[in-house]
Structure formats: structure tokens, C-alpha cells
Design a protein that fits this description.
Elements (H helix, E strand, L loop, with lengths): L3 E3 L6 H5 L4 E3 L3 H4 L6 H14 L3 E6 L4 E4 L1 H7 L3 H4 L4 H4 L30 E6 L5 E13 L2 E11 L1 H40 L3 E9 L5 E9 L1 H7 L9 H4 L6 H12 L3 E7 L4 E10 L6 E8 L1 H51 L4 H32 L8 E4 H18 L3 E5 L6 E4 L1 H17 L6 E9 L2 E8 L6 H4 L23 H11 L3 E5 L7 E8 L29 E5 L3 H13 L3 E5 L2 H11 L3 E5 L7 H9 L8 E6 L4 H10 L3 E4 L4 H14 L2
Parallel strand pairs: 14-16, 20-21, 20-22, 22-23, 23-24
Antiparallel strand pairs: 1-2, 3-4, 3-7, 5-6, 6-7, 8-9, 8-12, 10-11, 11-12, 13-15, 16-17, 17-19, 18-19
């Protein structure tokens, strides 16, 4: 059996704690060392309390201090004697929020069973004698007597330094976390930067400037660049190299521009051509890095195509303005060229109206008027031919033809104009026959235009020379004159449409600027070339046409343009015809009807489609000359209506129009016309057609 006894001797602070504390009876060896006395044990306990660096105190069941070791008293700022016997909850312990004391009202030791001799380590705040708090960690070892709480031994230590260390550790941990987060953010930012850096569709590089001792920019290093840098510049492997290393002949523009960015800290934007790679770039350069950094971020893109487009647009605008100027001049010149033949025609009409001229004089006036009408017709034909050629509507009917015959026909056509200018014409033809594969009508037109051009720009009494010969596999035609010549600036554009050599006061007749353009286009259609030269103004001009000689194989092509009509002698009609002339131009209709009546035919005149239908129903014409361009019911519609009228199914319909292209001819045929004539139709052509129709109606 075990027995409990009370310690009664008040030996010291520690022994007083146990004065009323029950102690279980233990074997002698477990209470004290063998051979030791109780005094020895007490001395040992006192030594332990005095040498402990932690505070240790005891309390009884009433919460009053029974002892306090030196370390505890020093920590709290008391003398041990000031605490012994005093309720410690009032002296050193703070009160909780409800103001209740910890000892003994909330003595946690009362809840500790006797077999659990030490409570858990807790933290709290004790109050020093001077009123300052001190954080502590403590543990409670309860004491019981007869199963009831008898007090406790409390061990405590100062947490101030520990908490400072903990706070420092936490601060370091926080800083480490911030640094870690910053590193992660930096890594993420770097990844985003690199992703953006490489995915840009613009070239980007970072350069580091180099300055001379005077502070002037002289060169720069390439620090880094994206993939588009190589694509847009065509240069690879430039990292850690300088511009001077890569381009020894490189100008200093880039270094100066980027140097200003470093020196001023302000970005710049500019366009610049890099001649070493033959490209234009749009550039944005800005400071890169911290203040004082020599680095510059350069963002640029290739704008070579845009610059070329801008240049092309400016060139196009210039050309359009020039074309508009030429058009204006052309319209003014056209008006002049049409008035030019009209003036003598009007004068001739005045002479005929007065009737004072002799028969020979009248014949001369009529010849003059016919010549002027022919000139106007030739002018209009040239305009129509240029439009057809530009529209790709011309196909040539080639055949083997002697160059001499073409020259002879052209001279015959142009001779009246040269005779009027009293020009001396020198002709040199080869003895051997030089043959070419050509459309005779079109090549005659080429030579006529060259001769007419020489006659227009050669003063009265001048000389015109035409020569033909063979050179190798080519036939060469040479037309020269001693006329006004051309300035060097005019040589490059002489064959352009509507371009004219500047007129002077030496009698040049001017023109529309289409004759030489037509010559070049027709010659090129024949596979040849034409060139013109002049030693300058007043030195005359020379034009050389080169054409391939005729080959053994010749393939004929269809011709959508009419051949020049040969001059046919007047033919008397096989019999008199009833002819209806329909034209909204009253003078044209009346004049044509009068010419036909002189030939012995009976005529009627109408000036629109409806009137033509009424007249035809009563007149029953054999032939109808019908204008196409009439207001209201046009010629095509009128022809279709005439074909449906009773008694007119065999009537011959002849279209008279200023439109003489292949499309117009095809449309006339579809509408029911039998023939298609271009205005103004020559009298010989009209007589021949009427005679043919009369013969077919016998």
C-alpha cells in the first residue's frame, strides 16, 4: 500500500510550496539517492531553481505565489520577496476580455487530471513591474492533495527575442516570396516579351550605341533581334556585330538618328531608304532600358512596295494630268483641223452662188472642194482607225505585194498636198522587186501618213525624199524632208497618240497628232519597226520603216476594216429607180436626193423613222438610203419595220452612218440592211452601188 504524507518543515521557497502538498509514498531509492538525506535533496532542488535560465514559480490553490526563482523575478522586474504570498493574477498576468482572473477562477490546472503532471506549452502576456508587457511561453504542472487541486508549478520564458526572430524570419520569408513572385512575374513577362517579340509581323531589334570621345554617335551594336528582322532585311547572323562591320559603306544616318534618341531620351519616327539592301523602311526608335542606357529599341517594317506604289500613283497622276492636257489640246486642234478645210469649202460655195466664174473657174472650185472633203474624210478615217487598233479590232489581210506598188499608190494619194506646197519630191526605188507580206491598204496608209506628215511640216518649196531598198531579210522604207525638224525633247514622244511637234512660224500646218501614232501601230501589226530622227529644229526629219520580207508560206487573215475604195468612173444607171433617202440631217438628205435625181432616179425624202414608214408605204421605193443615228426610232428599228411592210420585202436597204466598225456592220446585217456605207460616201461609190442594184432589179 502506498501512503501520503505532508511536508511540514518550512525550509525555503521550494519547500514551502510542498508544505501542504501530498506526496505519494515511493520506494526509498526513488525519492532520494541512496545514502542522501532530505536536506541534500532540497539543496539540489534549490540549486536547480537558481541556475535555471527560465522563470519558475509556484502557486497554491488560492493562486498566491509560493516561490519565484531569480530568473523569473528578473524577467518580471520584481524581487522574489515582492511576489511570494501575493496573487499573481493581479501583479503579472493580464486579464482576458471578460475581466475575469486566470488564478484561480480560470486556473486551467483544475481541469488537468492528477496522472497528467504537466500541461501543454502555451503563450500569454505577463506584465512587468514597470507596466510593460512581455510575451511569454509557459507550461503548468499541477499539484494535487487527496485528489484535489493543491497548486501548480509554472515554467515560463521570454518570447520577445523569439518573436523578433520570428518576425525577422517572416519578413525574410515575405521578401523571399516577393522576390520569388517577382522572379516568376519577370520570367512570365520575359516569356510574353519573347512570344510577342517573335510573333510580331514587324522587324524589331535592340541596338547599343557607340559614341566617340566628343559624344558624337559613330556606330552601334546589334544586341538582339526577332525573326522578322532577317526576313525584312535579308541579313542573318548580325547579333553582337556592328553596323560598320556589316556595311562598311553604310551612311551615318541611322547612327545619328538613334544617337539622338539616346542623347535626348525622346523617340523618333522616320522613313529611310537603305541603299545597301535596296529597300525602304518605316522606323520607330525609342529609348530602351534604365536612364543612362545606351540601348535603343528599333521597330521597323519594309515599305518598299508602298513607296513603289506611291511613286507609281504619282507617276500615274502626272500621266493622267498630261493625258488631260493632251486631250484638251487635241480637242482644240480637232476643231482647228475641221475648220481648216471648211473655210475653202465655204468660200467655194460663195463663188458658185455668185455664178460669176467661167466654166474652167467653176471646175477648179469643185476640185478644191472635193480635195478638202477628201482631207476631212482622211482625218476622220484616221481617228476611226486609231480607235479600232486600240480596241484590238483590226485584223490584216496580208498578201505578197511589191513595196514599189505600195509607194506608188501612196504618192498618188499624197501628191495633191505636196503639189499645193510646191514641194520637190525625190523617189528612189530598187531595180529588183522587193516584196513584203502586208495588207496593201494598210501599208499604203502608212506611207501616205508619212508623206503627208512631211508635206505638213515642210515649208513651201521644200524637198521630200522617199527611198525603198532591201537590207538583209528586211525591206527598208526611208522618208525624209528638210522641214521644221524636231527638238530632242520631242523625239521620245513623237509616236505617242495626240503628241505634236511644236509649231513654228515657218508654215507648218499642224495636225491632230494621230498620224505618226497610227503609223507605228500599223507597222507593228505587220511585225515591223519605225523610228524617227532629227538633228534639231529647222534641220528636217527622217523616218525609217523596216518590214520583214515576204516568205514562201503566207496565211491570209480576215479584215474587219474596209479597203480604201478605188476611184471608179461614173456609170450610167441600168434603169431609173425609186429611191427613198431618210436622214434627220435635212441638208444631207436633200443633197443626196438631188445627186440621185441628176442620175435620173426618182426620190423622196424623210427625216425620221415614222415619216419614213408612211412615205415608204405610199412611195414603194426600190432602194432606201437610211441613216442609223436618228432620234426616236433609229435606223435599225426603222429597217426592221420596213422589212415587215407589205410590198417592201424586196426593197434594198442601204445603211448610211458615221459608225463603220465591224460591230456596226454586223448589227446592220442583223437588222435587215443589204449594204453598209460610211459617211461621207464618195459619189463614185454611190453611183457604182446604185448601178449594181439597178442591174440586179432588171
Amino acid at each position: 500500500m502506498s501512503a501520503t504524507h505532508m511536508v511540514s518543515e518550512p525550509l525555503d521557497d521550494f519547500s514551502r510550496l510542498f508544505r501542504t502538498v501530498p506526496v505519494r509514498q515511493q520506494p526509498a531509492g526513488q525519492i532520494q539517492a541512496e545514502g542522501s538525506t532530505p536536506d541534500d535533496s532540497r539543496a539540489l532542488l534549490s540549486l536547480l531553481l537558481a541556475s535555471s535560465l527560465e522563470g519558475i514559480y509556484g502557486i497554491n490553490a488560492a493562486g498566491c505565489c509560493t516561490f519565484m526563482n531569480a530568473a523569473g523575478a528578473a524577467l518580471l522586474g520584481y524581487e522574489a520577496s515582492e511576489l511570494v504570498g501575493q496573487p499573481l493574477s493581479k501583479l503579472i498576468h493580464h486579464r482576458p476580455a471578460d475581466a475575469s482572473g486566470f488564478w484561480p477562477a480560470r486556473d486551467q490546472t483544475t481541469a488537468v487530471p492528477p496522472e497528467k503532471m504537466a500541461g501543454p506549452l502555451s503563450e500569454d502576456t505577463f506584465w512587468r513591474k514597470n507596466g510593460t508587457p512581455v510575451p511569454v511561453a509557459y507550461s503548468v504542472s499541477p499539484l494535487t492533495a487527496n485528489g484535489k487541486p493543491a497548486g501548480a508549478v509554472v515554467r515560463f520564458s521570454d518570447l520577445t527575442e523569439s518573436r523578433c526572430q520570428q518576425a525577422e524570419r517572416q519578413r525574410l520569408l515575405d521578401e523571399l516570396q516577393v522576390a520569388h513572385d517577382g522572379l516568376q512575374a519577370l520570367r512570365s513577362c520575359k516569356e510574353r516579351y519573347r512570344s510577342l517579340f517573335e510573333s510580331m509581323d514587324q522587324a524589331f531589334c535592340v541596338i547599343e550605341m557607340r559614341f566617340d570621345p566628343a559624344g558624337a554617335p559613330i556606330d552601334y551594336w546589334f544586341v538582339e533581334m526577332n525573326a522578322m528582322f532577317e526576313q525584312q532585311t535579308g541579313i542573318a547572323g548580325v547579333q553582337r556585330k556592328t553596323a560598320r562591320m556589316l556595311f562598311p559603306e553604310h551612311d551615318n544616318f541611322w547612327a545619328n538618328a538613334c544617337g539622338r534618341v539616346v542623347l535626348t531620351g525622346k523617340p523618333v519616327r522616320f522613313d529611310h531608304e537603305v541603299k545597301s539592301v535596296n529597300r525602304w523602311f518605316e522606323v520607330y526608335a525609342s529609348p530602351f532600358g534604365s536612364p543612362g542606357s545606351l540601348k535603343v529599341a528599333v521597330l521597323f517594317r519594309d515599305i518598299t512596295s508602298r513607296r513603289q506604289s506611291d511613286t507609281a500613283l504619282r507617276q500615274l497622276a502626272t500621266e493622267l494630268a498630261e493625258a488631260d492636257r493632251c486631250k484638251t489640246e487635241f480637242m482644240a486642234t480637232l476643231a482647228h483641223e475641221l475648220r481648216h478645210p471648211l473655210a475653202p469649202i465655204r468660200s467655194g460655195l460663195g463663188l458658185l452662188r455668185l455664178g460669176g466664174s467661167s466654166p474652167e473657174g467653176k471646175e477648179k472650185v469643185l476640185d478644191m472642194m472635193d480635195r478638202q472633203v477628201s482631207q476631212m474624210t482622211h482625218l476622220i478615217d484616221d481617228l476611226m482607225d486609231v480607235a479600232r487598233i486600240n480596241g484590238g479590232q483590226v485584223k490584216l489581210r496580208k498578201q505578197r505585194v511589191a513595196l514599189k506598188s505600195i509607194v506608188s499608190c501612196a504618192i498618188e494619194t499624197s501628191l495633191p498636198l505636196m503639189e499645193a506646197g510646191r514641194h520637190a519630191l525625190i523617189v528612189q526605188m530598187p531595180d529588183a522587186c522587193v516584196e513584203i507580206e502586208a495588207d496593201p491598204a494598210r501599208m499604203t496608209q502608212v506611207v501616205v501618213n508619212l508623206l503627208n506628215n512631211a508635206a505638213k511640216y515642210t515649208p513651201v518649196g521644200g524637198r521630200i525624199e522617199i527611198t525603198a531598198h532591201q537590207e538583209g531579210n528586211e525591206a527598208v522604207l526611208w522618208v525624209s524632208d528638210n522641214g521644221v525638224g524636231m527638238a530632242e525633247a520631242s523625239l521620245a514622244t513623237m509616236f505617242e497618240l495626240y503628241q505634236q511637234v511644236e509649231q513654228n512660224l515657218n508654215g507648218a500646218q499642224g495636225g491632230l497628232g494621230i498620224g505618226l501614232a497610227l503609223v507605228r501601230r500599223l507597222v507593228e501589226l505587220h511585225g515591223g519597226t519605225v523610228e524617227g530622227v532629227s538633228d534639231g529644229l529647222g534641220q528636217g526629219s527622217t523616218f525609217t520603216v523596216r518590214l520583214p520580207l515576204a516568205s514562201n508560206a503566207l496565211k491570209a487573215l480576215s479584215d474587219e476594216l474596209p479597203m480604201p475604195q478605188p476611184s471608179l468612173p461614173d456609170q450610167a444607171p441600168a434603169r431609173a429607180l425609186r429611191i427613198l433617202v431618210v436622214d434627220d440631217h435635212a441638208d444631207a438628205a436633200t443633197t443626196l436626193a438631188a445627186l440621185l435625181e441628176i442620175q435620173g432616179h426618182t426620190t423622196q425624202v424623210a427625216h425620221d423613222g415614222q415619216q419614213a414608214l408612211k412615205t415608204a408605204g405610199k412611195f414603194k421605193p426600190d432602194v432606201v438610203f437610211l441613216d442609223i443615228d436618228m432620234p426616236g426610232m433609229n435606223g435599225y428599228e426603222t429597217a426592221q419595220a420596213l422589212r415587215k411592210m407589205e410590198g417592201l420585202t424586196q426593197t434594198v436597204l442601204v445603211a448610211l452612218t458615221g459608225w463603220n466598225g465591224s460591230k456596226e456592220k454586223a448589227r446592220s446585217q442583223t437588222a435587215g440592211f443589204d449594204h453598209h456605207l460610211a459617211k461621207p460616201a464618195a459619189l463614185t461609190t454611190l453611183n457604182a452601188l446604185v448601178s449594181t442594184i439597178a442591174a440586179s432589179l432588171k
